[in-house]
Amino acid sequence: MDQPLQSTLPVMDHHWLPFTNNRLFRQEPQVFAKAEGVRYWTHDGREVLDGSSGLFCCAAGHGRPEIADAVHRQLMTLDYTPHFQRAAPISFEFATALAGLLPAGLDRVFFGGSGSEAVDTALKLCLAYHRSRGEGQRSRFVSRQWAYHGVNLGGTSLAGMVANRRDFSGVTCAVSHMRHTWSEEQRYSRGQPETGLDKAEDLEEICRTYGGDTIAAVFVEPVAGSIGTIVPPKGYLERLRAICDAHGILLVFDEVITGFGRLGAPFAGQEFGVTPDVMTMAKALTNGTIPMSAVACKTGIQQTIIEAARGDRPEFFHGYTYSAHPVACAAGLAALSIYRDEGLFERGQAMSDRFLDGVFGLRNLAQVADLRGYGMMAGIQLRPGAVPGEKGSRAQRALFDAGLHVKATGDALIFAPALVVEEADLDRMLEVLQKVLGRADL
Ligand code: PMP
């Protein structure tokens, strides 16, 4: 960057920052004013490498002119379209392009504005599907300990990170939680762990307890992201698929983080060879530029709901003012073109060995207690301090001061650079991690 954008801080009284301790922020503001490629610059011009693709959304790096141009063109052509029997051509174009990337059989796409909206849409879609087949008694959902499925009320009910649920008791859905799949013997295992397949039997146990025919759907993140990257044990997703099939339960993969090449294949379903019935995606859907999410489902799920509908009413009375927003569709189409033209998923795959070698090279550092990783996504578990989560916050701050943005979650760091990252920048990110996590006094 040539010069600082603006060296004074903005007035900070009025904006209530999300997911932030606002008191602390005002004491120690961390303000990003510009971004390009895998770099941010703070308001006073300091360079900070982006080790978390923003929040795992900017797969093609920041400041892509192709997306900016497409957004500008769309704004000047058609800036908004209503629903209720109206639509824009670009939303069909985008859904068709997406269908070409999705796992075989999932080719119907419903748009929303965020990952949380996608999760709540998927919950309602599963209920609508069962109801239209005369199985309205299926109203229970299953998710997992340590799961993150967004912050709307449905996603909050599914939450397995207890802190995300605790303050909001009395929420709507009946949810049973399977155990998470991490265990002591998996410490420092790279890729899919050999142990933990037995945890899939928790689903059978829940079916025995409540009756398999009362369960609408099982929601899982194929790789649990927000807890700090927990990779599924070998055979685990396959076993969940088999149990769901045996009981007529829908399997939903929440691919808000894992989608768009993060693990290698376009989606985790393809990477692990397990096809869900319903899938959520967001974040890299538009390379993080314009808020947007999508739910994809199998053809037959949409057909069943449409065929069961009577009269002229919408068959699925659901949607958002900003569903299928034409400007977001333009950003998404431009992002998909970049992914295709630059072979970005293959690029991520080719970089993964170097990435994981670097991550697992952090093993002997003073602060490191466990390492996990798959594709271009890694979790660095830190030795906890006296209060859970404090070490993670301190590490996130110290890394920022040393020139690296990495998101902390509890006492883990989620390291997931953009798929466009160059080797030299990846090495610099790893050097900062080495330096900061090697400090005994952190
Ligand atoms: N599901 C998963 C798996 C996620 O990781 C996230 C966000 N980190 C969400 C849902 C929610 O997405 P959003 O923040 O866009 O609402």
| Beta content | 15-25%
The CATH topology annotation of the largest domain reads as Aspartate Aminotransferase, domain 2
Report Rg: 22 Å
Number of helices: 15
* Annotated CATH architecture of the largest domain: 3-Layer(aba) Sandwich
Organism: Tistlia consotensis USBA 355
Cofactor: pyridoxal 5'-phosphate
Pfam families: Aminotran_3
GO molecular function, one term: transaminase activity
Quickly describe the structure.
Keywords: Aminotransferase, Pyridoxal phosphate, Pyruvate, Transferase. This protein has 442 residues and is of the alpha/beta class.
Structure description:
Keywords: Aminotransferase, Pyridoxal phosphate, Pyruvate, Transferase. Its cofactor is pyridoxal 5'-phosphate. InterPro entries: Aminotrans_3, Aminotrans_3_PPA_site, PyrdxlP-dep_Trfase, PyrdxlP-dep_Trfase_major, PyrdxlP-dep_Trfase_small. Belongs to the class-III pyridoxal-phosphate-dependent aminotransferase family. This is Beta-alanine--pyruvate transaminase. The protein has a seven-stranded mixed beta sheet, sandwiched between helices. A four-stranded mixed beta sheet has the order 1-2-3-13. It is globular. 49% of the residues are buried. The model has no long low-confidence stretch (mean pLDDT 96). 36% of the residues lie in helices and 17% in strands. The protein has 442 residues and is an alpha/beta fold. The chain starts with 21 loop residues before the first helix and ends in a 5-residue tail after the last helix. It folds into two domains: 22-60 and 343-437, Alpha-Beta Complex (Aspartate Aminotransferase, domain 1); 67-341, Type I PLP-dependent aspartate aminotransferase-like (Major domain) (Aspartate Aminotransferase, domain 2, 3-Layer(aba) Sandwich). It has 15 helices and 15 strands. Residues 114-116, 119, 148-150, 221, 225-226, 254, 256-257, 282 line the site of 4'-deoxy-4'-aminopyridoxal-5'-phosphate. The site of 4'-deoxy-4'-aminopyridoxal-5'-phosphate has 14 residues, from helix 5.
